[in-house]
Write a structure and sequence with these properties.
The complex is a heterodimer of chains A (about 240) and B (about 190). By secondary structure, chain A is α/β, with parallel strands linked by helices. Chain A is built from eight helices and ten strands. Chain A has two domains: about 150 residues, P-loop containing nucleotide triphosphate hydrolases (Rossmann fold, 3-Layer(aba) Sandwich), CATH 3.40.50.300; about 60 residues, no CATH class. Chain A has a six-stranded mixed beta sheet, with helices on both faces. In chain A, strands 2-1-4-5 form a four-stranded antiparallel beta sheet, with helices on one face. In chain A, helix 3 crosses helix 4, helix 3 runs parallel beside helix 5 and helix 4 crosses helix 5. The C terminus of chain A is likely disordered. Chain B contains seven helices and three strands. The radius of gyration of chain B is 23 Å and the shape is elongated. Classes of the chains: A alpha/beta (about 240), B mainly alpha (about 190).
């Protein structure tokens, strides 16, 4: 099933002589269980693509469908509900609320969606536990390491029954081991059926994806071919 | 990769047979560098000739012949470990040359050339990352080899990204013509351990 679909999506900032096209006629679809990385230099439109896919911004033209439903046909309330229930967002700088503990941060979107505090907390604990953070549940963000904070942010993005995980440079300033840990978690969420989109300029992060699309000047200019499988690297003829 | 020093390293753990050395070499390099049995014996013969290993003279040549490291061998191994490999002169990198040529050729879209190489490198990295995902936690040597390969490929992608940006900027604001006094790229720099 296609979870996210962008059809001929364009976004232009400003108007007239100061008009800046950020996205131009982008077609992209991401299936259930698939992890797609969007690579491109800064200013290529990566973050715009993600905010539009996450319904945080509206496209100037074209259509965005999440789980088969067009965002343009939804009311503000419906879109807010979609963001709380279906879409999880991981930001570069974590965006955790400093006054809430790890588990309160993770359960907040579920609680805001009308679930009881107790049930939301249980879901939050389960998400933290899956990411190996159960013993950090009552810590505040400033009592956690950078890697732990980003894992809490991922737990918040997958808590409950999210179907679409959007991540903007999710390894931020983390070192490569922590960056790997973040991508492992995102991949395992996808293996459980979540559709994932990671935007990054970092090829090591992007290489965790099933498919990498390349963005340049707001256009998708290329994408990777389906993988040949790791065995090809160890075959005697293809030995690097 | 120095097979010679890898064999000395294995023998520094204790005496071993030729066949055993081959198996251990492959296992320790994450089976990424297969080694033929002939290479092992030729290298062992040279090590013996140079007095860095000793063998059981009584036994005939073959998989059952045992080898051990000598004091000179230990010294050679210790010195080799601490000698930096020669990275002082820029390698003649085929990728760099292709991009340089593409940037000068009329009628060639250099960005398209860069992207073709970038896509290929990222695809290779995807395959190495799959290997890392499935196997790296089980074997330290393998994990180190996979990391090295990923960082190497990553550095090439980063160079392509930088080149792409530089070429794009140069098209907008052409760079000043090279002056005769352009500094020379060092061809050979002495490296002290």
């Amino acid at each position: 099933m296609t979870v996210l679909e962008l059809r001929q999506t364009s976004k232009t900032y400003g108007a007239g002589p100061t008009e800046v096209p950020a996205l131009r006629h982008v077609d992209l679809s991401v299936d259930e269980g698939e992890l797609v990385a969007v690579m491109g230099p800064s200013g290529s439109g990566k973050s715009t693509l993600l905010t539009i896919a996450g319904s945080l911004e509206e496209p100037t033209s074209g259509e965005v469908l999440v789980c088969g439903r067009a965002l343009s046909g939804m009311s503000r309330n419906e879109r807010s509900r979609l963001r709380r229930r279906v879409i999880g967002y991981v930001f570069q700088d974590f965006n955790l609320l400093a006054g809430l503990t790890a588990v309160e941060n993770v359960s907040l979107p579920v609680e805001l969606d009308g679930t009881s505090i107790k049930a939301a907390r249980d879901l939050g604990m389960r998400a933290l536990d899956e990411l190996g953070l159960a013993d950090r549940a009552t810590r505040f963000p400033d009592e956690l390491s950078g890697g732990e904070r980003q894992r809490v942010a991922i737990a918040r993005a997958v808590v409950g029954d999210r179907q679409l995980l959007l991540a903007d440079e999710p390894s931020g300033a983390l070192d490569s081991n922590n960056g790997d840990a973040v991508m492992r978690l995102i991949r395992s969420a996808c293996q459980r059926g979540v559709a994932g989109v990671v935007v990054t300029h970092d090829a090591q992060l992007a290489s965790w994806a099933d498919r990498v699309v390349f963005l340049r000047d707001g256009r998708i200019v290329d994408q990777t071919l389906p993988p040949a499988g790791p065995e090809s690297l160890l075959a005697p003829s293809g030995n690097p | 990769m120095s097979v010679r020093h890898a064999l000395l390293a294995l023998l520094s753990e204790g005496p071993k047979y030729g066949l055993q050395l081959r198996h251990e070499f492959e296992a320790r390099t994450g089976e990424v560098w297969p080694l033929n049995v002939g290479q092992v014996y030729t290298t062992l013969q040279r090590l013996e000739r140079d007095g860095l290993v000793e063998s059981d003279n009584a036994v005939e040549e073959g998989p059952q012949k045992g080898f051990r490291i000598t004091a000179d061998g230990e010294e050679e191994l210790a010195a080799w470990l601490r000698t930096p490999p020669d990275l002082s002169s820029p390698p003649r990198d085929e990728l760099v040359i292709k991009v340089l040529v593409a940037s000068r050729l009329p009628g060639v879209d250099v960005h398209e050339v860069v992207q073709a190489h970038r896509r290929y490198l990222v695809q290779l990295m995807q395959e190495w990352t799959r290997l890392k995902e499935y196997a790296a936690d089980r074997d330290l040597s393998f994990a180190l080899v996979v990391d090295a390969e990923l960082f190497r490929l990553d550095s090439l992608v980063r160079w392509l990204d930088a080149a792409d940006g530089r070429i794009k900027r140069a098209a907008v604001e052409p760079v000043a013509p090279a002056r005769p006094g352009l500094p020379k790229i060092p061809r050979k720099v002495e490296v002290r351990p």
